[in-house]
Amino acid sequence: MATVIMPKMGDAMEEGTLLKWLKNPGDEIAVGDPIAEIETDKVTLELESDEAGFLTNTLVEEGAVVPIGTPVATIGTESEVGQGAPADAEAPAAEEPAQEEAPSPAAAAPEKEEPAPVAATAPAAESASVAPQVANRQPGERLRASPLVKRLAAEHGIDLSVVAGSGPGGRIIKNDINDFITGAKPIPQAVAQEAPATPAVNGQQPAAAPSGATPKGNLVELSRIRRTTGARMSESKRDIPHYYVTSEVDLTAGLEFRKQINAALESEGVKVSVNDLIVKAAGLALREHPAVNSSYVNDQLYEHDNIDINIAISLQGGLIAPFVPGADGKSLGSIARITKDLGERARNGGLTPDEYQGGTFTISNLGMFDVDEFIAVINPPQAAILAVGSARQTPVVRDGEIVIGNMMKLTVSADHRVLDGAAVAGFLQSVRKYLENPMLLAVS
Amino acid sequence: MPVKTYRDALRSAMAEEMERDESVVLLGEDIGIYGGTHLVTNGLIDQFGSRRVIDTPIAENGFTGAAIGMAMAGLKPIVEMMTWNFSFQAVDQIIQNAAKLHYFSGGQVHVPLVIRGPNGGGVQLSAQHTHSLEGFYGHFPGLKVVSPATPEDVKGMMLAAIRDPDPVIFLEAGALYGTKGEVPDGDYTVEFGKARIAREGNDVSLVSYGRQVNLLLRVADKLAEDNIEAEVIDLRSIRPFDAETLVSSVRKTHRAVVVQEQWRWFSVASEVAAILQEQAFDDLDAPVERVSGAEVPAPYARNLEIAAFPSEQQIIDAVRRVLYR
Lengths: 444, 325
Prior knowledge:
The structure holds two protein chains of two kinds. Chain A is built from 13 helices and 18 strands. Chain A has helices at about 95-100, 105, 125-130, 145-155, 175-180, 200-210, 225-240, 250-265, 275-290, 330-345, 355, 420-435, 440-444, and strands at about 1-5, 15-20, 30, 35-40, 45-50, 55-60, 65, 70-75, 240-250, 295, 300-305, 310, 315, 320, 325, 360-365, 385-400, 400-415. In chain A, the strands form five sheets. Chain A has a six-stranded mixed β-sheet with strand order 9-18-17-16-12-15. A four-stranded antiparallel β-sheet of chain A has the order 1-8-6-3. In chain A, α4 (about 145-155) runs parallel beside α5 (about 175-180). Chain A is globular. By secondary structure, chain B is of the alpha/beta class. Chain B has two domains: about 5-180, 3-Layer(aba) Sandwich (Rossmann fold), CATH 3.40.50; about 195-325, Rossmann fold (3-Layer(aba) Sandwich), CATH 3.40.50.920. Chain B has twelve helices and 14 strands. In chain B, strands 3-2-4-5-7-6-12 form a seven-stranded mixed β-sheet, sandwiched between helices. A five-stranded mixed β-sheet of chain B has the order 9-11-10-13-14, sandwiched between helices. Chain B has a two-stranded antiparallel ribbon with strand order 1-8. In chain B, α8 (about 210-225) links the parallel β10 (about 205-210) and β11 (about 230-235). In chain B, α9 crosses α10. Chain B is globular, with a radius of gyration of 19 Å. The interface of A and B includes residues 147, 148, 149, 167 and 175 of A.
């Protein structure tokens, strides 16, 4: 019998939710058949089988949240249907020896690491005992904290995994968290893109509610993506000294240009959106202003060589921002294809974590919602985000005459720890140059 | 309020109760004509006569057994152990009879007996005459064990002990007989099982009983010079035990250092540490520290005796460990 485990779908993934079984015990399974729907912290995916046979057992209930590596189902012969999970001795044999006995072939055989969302034959005994949630701790490094600290951390929503301990053996003592409790310092968050641990969320509720009173209204269960978005945006607004620079761009030429290229691309079924123009323009402008294309992590500034532009996409349960890799170097047609695909897959839950974890600069566009302008919250650890308003027909003065312009306001929110106003203004000037001279978008 | 020595406060408790209650009698070696080796009973034979202040032979097992019989028959004897070390001679009577008769008799018989005398060391009496027996006697169900630290408490607790229907092990701090303090006139009792906050503080709870309480108060003064505000808890009674006061103090301070003259193993400090981890686990910011006597028979030489008992520095070091500074 083979075991299907909760797969690791991205570096930051620690656990997943088994949303729904797509097969029942007794169903015949072919390789590649989806057997369950799983949800990571951001996306919903189908868990495909890499074994053929019969689904013999499901080991977790729908809705269960389990650590990665946890066996969730078994696949075997028809006669094994309904039998118990494989005993310790059984399952692992097939693939495991490669690890220990023949290190060189294992190292040289990366095929097994294809990113397809498949279940591996599990080293069952081990996977079953995977410790739940040792978030952000080095493997094997136990978190030491005094009992008092553990209680206070739960009450105040402090993630101890990111708190340094000053006591013997690295024990976290009350003094280490005092400043977070009194509010003298912000509560640190895990650097990785993690939702806060459940106890923290629970712990915060009583603190947030006015003493003893439960707010009226329907209690809405927050989705994982909503919780992640909330935690990251809180972290961003709390930790990053935001400032904002706004510029107005006349999109008249850009709209005309878009009309022309869409006519040319019609036969290929590709349609370039205004947003695609902005992605390309921003990509080219970032090339000229590399400081804006940077990340600030653990008090260190990293300027990126690659220009990967995230596009904020609104979903029912929250926000997700997959990125266009190498946006500066891609043609408008290719950007259009990529953004269309990312948008569709974001909405039906088909993104993989590698498509939204990362990116170097984010664009949030509310232009389609008829807004004048808005300011966005920086997507950490990035240094800046661009908020795009609607293009509006407005009287403008050009060459001494009043004409109708298509004016669009662009607002950059930037991290003042690493970026000064002049750099951001320069970046906006570049964006404007590209959008107002759209031929540059085609030739650069 | 009048100021009295620990010794005089103790004597006045016994004398006042003997005036009030004819069933109170004293037994012990040299307590009458000689006035008591530590002069605790000095003059009482003149006041109450030799029928109520009884000089006994050097036979602890015998006179303790006799006192148990008197108590069963309705008297309220107070037995003096010249030092608690000699109670080893009487321990069979104390544990096998005094502690158990109420149980054996299905509650029909009470043994309203007080056994008192100096406990602990500090006065160069060497190994055979220097024991701290609170942990030992505290072990046995059926005994109450108390250890007053101040003149006020020693009077109030002696009155409570005499009136208690069950046997009370009354451990006096021998080294404190000459210490002075305010003692209320007249009749008052200090309830067993109620600890005393000898000094309030928020940073660390220092816990002891008997003469170590005074040591803790001195240590607290020194710590205050470094802005460490120690709370000093005088347990007063070992059994019954006031866990509530202890736990609520540690809920406030999050750290505890327990100090005792007796040896560390299977001791009162061990019990205090166990209670704290059971009842205040989530409030502890550091492991409970125990500062105890050295694991040797008590030395005679002054310098060695001092070295064998908890010192201010040892306690300060322990406080710094639990405070991580």
